């Protein structure tokens, strides 16, 4: 089964053709990073406008790269939740138009589910059930993936997401958008024990995260130093902050796996590209003889291939939509 998949939940206009959920025939991403870099973050109105400009050419290129026409496509898939509502609407309405004009089935895909599915592309042997840590700029979840379409949240952030904390700390340190990537690179040359930073806990919810206080702590450090006319060692501060975030993610993830009985652990989402997080999870799994999976760097960010992968399993479970499908800014991965 060949699926044309469309992704436009934030600032990447993406399209791909995926066969049977695992084989990527094409994947095209039109990035807006350079434009949003001017503002230090994603500007929703600009993102929506750029999606309108790029989506037709992106989809056309995906079909051309796959050497296929609509007569060879079996279904149209699209990310419909969660994300920036204006950005989502561009992809959803374009997909609905394609479905109406071609008569092909329309498959609605949850953005976080598709991030998890990026691992199915990279690891053909991977099958549920497993425990997944989904970490991105807007989400930090520990999810029980019971099967391809049945998922349960066992832990989540109570405030900021890990990716948001990385980006805002990096921005305060003067790094360009997207800051988390630059902070990760700089941290590799720093001493992670140079600064003592908090590891917040959520009372009564051992698997939940809280990054707001940690983010505020590092921002206050930077501002206090600036007011005194001094400069903090950027590499050391980056390494210390990165370690604090990764410690929180790893500790809760491993605790959940041990207490819930999972020995197959998976990373997904944009922050799964973080080099320390990848190393730590791989090392901890190796110590316990557990299985460990995470996507290659090119599949960590938003892309159409992951949407096409999850769409295949949504279709098999009977999840299709009519042209009344609407975008949703927020939606649980469990729905």
What attributes characterize this protein structure?
five-stranded mixed β-sheet; 335 residues; Nucleotidyltransferase, domain 5; globular; 10 helices; alpha/beta; 10 strands; 18% strand
What is the CATH domain class of the largest domain?
A: Alpha Beta
Helix and strand sequence? EEEHHEHEHEEEHHHHEHEH
**What would you say the CATH architecture of the largest domain is?**
2-Layer Sandwich
Name the CATH superfamily classification of the largest domain: ATPase, nucleotide binding domain
Secondary structure tally, helices = 10
Mean pLDDT: 96
Question: Strand-residue fraction?
Answer: 15-25%
The stretches of 5 or more residues where confidence is low (pLDDT under 50) are none
> What is the general shape?
globular
- Please give the largest β-sheet: 5 strands, mixed
Could you walk me through the main structural features you see in this protein, from its secondary elements to its overall organization?
By secondary structure, this protein is α/β, with parallel strands linked by helices. The protein has 2 domains: 2-116 and 299-316, ATPase, nucleotide binding domain (Nucleotidyltransferase, domain 5), CATH 3.30.420.40; 129-294, Nucleotidyltransferase, domain 5, CATH 3.30.420. It has 10 helices and 10 strands. The chain has helices at residues 33-36, 44-65, 85-102, 111-122, 162-172, 179-187, 212-227, 234-260, 275-288, 304-316; strands spanning 2-7, 12-19, 23-31, 75-81, 106-110, 130-135, 140-145, 151-156, 264-268, 291-293. Strands 3-2-1-4-5 form a 5-stranded mixed β-sheet, sandwiched between helices. A 5-stranded mixed β-sheet has the order 8-7-6-9-10, with helices on both faces. A hairpin with a 3-residue loop joins strand 2 and strand 3 (23-31). The longest helix has 27 residues, at 234-260. The two termini are 25 Å apart.
């Amino acid at each position: 089964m060949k699926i044309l998949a469309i992704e436009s939940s934030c600032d990447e206009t993406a399209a791909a053709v995926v066969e049977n959920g695992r084989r990527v025939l094409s994947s095209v991403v039109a990035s807006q990073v350079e434009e949003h870099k001017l503002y230090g973050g994603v500007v929703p109105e600009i993102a929506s406008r750029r999606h309108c400009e790029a989506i037709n050419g992106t989809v056309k290129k995906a079909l051309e790269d796959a050497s296929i026409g609509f007569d060879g496509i079996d279904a149209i898939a699209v990310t419909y939740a969660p994300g920036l509502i204006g950005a989502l609407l561009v992809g959803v309405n374009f997909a609905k138009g394609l479905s109406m004009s071609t008569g092909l089935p329309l498959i609605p895909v949850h953005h976080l589910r598709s991030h998890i599915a990026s691992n199915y592309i990279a690891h053909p042997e991977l099958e549920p059930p497993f425990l997944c840590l989904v970490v991105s700029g807007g989400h930090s979840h520990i999810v029980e993936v019971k099967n391809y379409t049945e998922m349960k949240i066992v832990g989540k952030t109570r405030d900021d997401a890990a990716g948001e904390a990385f980006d805002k700390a990096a921005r305060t340190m003067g790094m360009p958008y997207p800051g988390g990537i630059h902070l990760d690179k700089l941290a590799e040359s720093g001493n992670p024990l140079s600064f003592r930073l908090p590891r917040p806990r959520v009372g009564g919810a051992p698997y939940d995260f809280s990054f707001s206080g940690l983010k505020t702590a590092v921002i206050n450090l930077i501002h206090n130093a600036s007011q005194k006319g001094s400069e903090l060692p950027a590499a050391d501060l980056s390494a210390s902050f990165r370690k604090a975030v990764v410690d929180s993610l790893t500790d809760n993830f491993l605790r959940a796996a041990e207490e819930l009985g999972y020995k197959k652990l998976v990373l997904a989402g944009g922050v799964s590209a973080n080099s320390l997080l990848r190393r730590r999870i791989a090392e901890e799994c190796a110590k316990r003889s557990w299985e460990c999976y995470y996507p290659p760097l090119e599949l960590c960010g938003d892309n159409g291939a992951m949407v096409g992968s999850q769409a295949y399993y949504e279709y098999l479970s009977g999840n299709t939509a009519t042209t009344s499908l609407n975008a949703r800014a927020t939606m649980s991965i469990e729905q």
